Structure formats: structure tokens, C-alpha cells
Amino acid sequence: MTIRTLIQEMRSRPHRVVHDAASIPTVSDSFSWEELPEELLREILIRVETADGGDWPSRKNVVACAGVCRSWRILTKEIVSVPEFSSKLTFPTSLKQPGPRDSLVQCFILRNRNTQSYHLYLGLTNSLTDDGKFLLAASKLKRATCTDYIISLRSDDMSKRSNVYLGRVRSNFLGTKFTVFDGNLTAQTGAAKMQKSRSSNLIKVSPRVPQGSYPIAHISYELNGLGSRGPRRMRCIMDTIPMSIVESRGRVASTSISSLSIRPSPFLRSHSKPVRSNSASCSDSGNNLRDPPLVLSNKTPRWHEQLQCWCLNFHGRVTVASVKNFQLVAVRDCETGQPSERIILQFGKVGKDMFTMDYGYPISAFQAFAICLSSFETRIACE
């Protein structure tokens, strides 16, 4: 059903929503879409959102409505729920918002060994063979002392100066510790927002533009007591998510992507800062923090006597045994290391260069993708 059809249908209905239906131009008249009365526009957008459900490619209709003009964009933002409650990834900002509380968003990663690139797709069906909806791309840059993974909204643009740059993952020399950085376009390029004075030729720098990218997660790998024969131990410290979020089922703020300017740009404006905590045991930074950050650890696999291997229950989402496979759960107590049972992120191999990635609350698709990228790196000290 098109928007023009909806307008015609609503014009024929009793005027309980539109107070002055006669003032609405006919579909044959020339008029601006942004001039539609707010009450009529809201009902149209609600019906489009309801009809589209949660699957792609039908979600493109919601995105198209949001791209018409500013008034449509504002109303669409109000109507479309965040992934935490709707389980829908609709706009680019959804990639940096917490996943659903009661389920996992099913995605998969395709690796290209020749170009050292990784593409993240949203699974459109429960099958592992669908084409998926492209979400994010990453490129591996090998340096003398570390490895960088650049994460972007586009597979053909990996420049840090680009407006589609989201962040990066950097490893240490041994490949045992990783830091995830939330990218900030202004700080990376050194090109602060400039405004030209009308009265002179002087260039003024806007002081409101945030400066510098900041770490949002720290990932570490280490051997267990069995050495290379056993599964690796993995630990993630989520600097921007407090531990109390998981315990109290509170709401998590989305990570900052304020510096991006992808059209429509208002969808990409959100802010978040690292969590402060008094506990140094859960953080490598040792800062004076007011609330301990969320700590994730990999779920311990069990030894299968018949198969003679370590096993985890991925509920059919992983089909190939690999040292890269893992499931992350929250550590409830940093001192005892007692993990919870709820899986927040699981990653596993299903083909030579294909891996599944399923994530949920309280981490985002960007954070989950960054953590999974660290698993691709070869660890000199662990392997």
C-alpha cells in the first residue's frame, strides 16, 4: 500500500483525526509532503511501521519515509522503537544501540582472506544460507607493533576521514589484548567544524564538536591450565556499560556516534561516556570509577568423551569446530568470577570463511562485531 493510497483512504474516512480535511490537497495537486497535517502524517507512519513488521527488505519503506523531510524524520524516530524493545535494526543508529532483551539478533560474518576484509550481515531467515542485509564492514591493517581493524558503514570506504567511519579495534603485539575505540570523525581528521564569519574572512571553530575517540571495551585472551590443547579464556570489559545494568535490568544508553553525518544525519546523534567505578579489579584503567563496568567472560565448554573435544550448545547456529567459537556471559561478581547463564554474545564457524554472530542486550551490533573481530587474530602467546 503506497502513501498516496493511504491519504486517499483517510480522506474518505470520518474526520476524527484530520480536523480540516478540505484543506488537504488532492493527490493530483502539486504540494510538499512536509505540509501534511501532523495527525494525518502520524497515522500514516504508524500504519507503514505496522505493515512492514520487522523483516528486511520491507523495512526500507520505513527508512524511505524517514528520508522525505525533517518533519517526517522526527515523527518516524518517535514511532520506531529501539532494538532493545522491538528487535528491529532499522536505521544506522540502531547499530550502536543495545540489542533486544529477550532474544538474540542473528547475524553472520563473511571473511575475505585475499582482501583481509570482514562483512557483517543481518540474517533475514533462520537459515544459514540467505543473502542477509549488509550492516557493517571491517578491514584488517597489519602494522609493525599492532593490528588495527577499521570498522565502517560501507565496504568500499575504510578511511578514518570518512563520514561512515565508526571506530576501530587495536591489538597489542602478541595479539592477546585488544581495545575497541568508538570513532570520532572530527578528532581523527583534525578538521573541526568550521563556520565562516559573515562580517569577515576569519574561520571560526565550533566549540560544541566533541573531540577525540575513546575506548569503549577492552578484550583479553589467555591460556587455561591445559595450554594450547584446551579452550582459550576470554574476558571483555565494557567501559561504557555499568554492571548494574544487567543486575537491575536497567536501560543502557547507546554509544556515541555524534560525529557521523550520514543522511539522514539526525538518526546518528547520540551520546555516551565511559562508566566510572570504584572497583579497580574489573578495569584495567585503574581510574576512580563510581560504578563497576560490565565484565563478560566466555562460557566454559564441557569435554565430550565420545567426540573427544570441547563442546558448547549453540542451538544449531554453529556447525564447525574451531578454537574461535565462543559464548560470552556476564560476570556477576568480579571477585569470585561467578558467571550468569544468559548468553549475551555467541560467535562460531559454519563454513570456511563464514561465521555466525548472535548478540543481545546490553551490547550493540557495533560492539559485538568488534569483539568478534578480535577472535580472528592469531595469538602468539595463546596458540
How would you describe this structure to a colleague?
This protein is an alpha+beta fold. About 15% of the residues lie in helices and about 30% in strands. It contains eight helices and 16 strands. The protein has helices spanning about 5-10, 40-50, 60-65, 70-80, 85, 185-190, 245-250, 365-375, and strands at about 105-110, 115-120, 135-140, 145-150, 165-170, 175-180, 195, 205, 215-220, 235-240, 295-300, 300-305, 310, 325-335, 340-350, 355-360. A twelve-stranded antiparallel beta barrel has the order 1-2-3-4-5-6-9-10-11-14-15-16. Strands 7-8 form a two-stranded antiparallel ribbon. α2 packs across α4. The chain is globular and about 65 Å long.
List key phrases describing it.
single chain; about 375 residues; alpha+beta; 8 helices; about 15% helix; globular
Amount of beta strand = 25-35%
Overall shape: it is globular
For the largest beta sheet, what order do the strands appear in spatially? 1-2-3-4-5-6-9-10-11-14-15-16
- Largest sheet entry: 12 strands, antiparallel, barrel
SSE topology string: HHHHHEEEEEEHEEEEHEEEEEEH
Mean pLDDT: 75
Helix content: 10-25%
Helix/strand/pairing category: alpha+beta
β-strand number: 16
Span between termini: 56 Å
Q: Mind telling me the C-alpha Rg?
A: 23 Å
Count of helical stretches: 8
Low-confidence stretches: 14-25, 185-211, 253-272, 276-281, 283-289
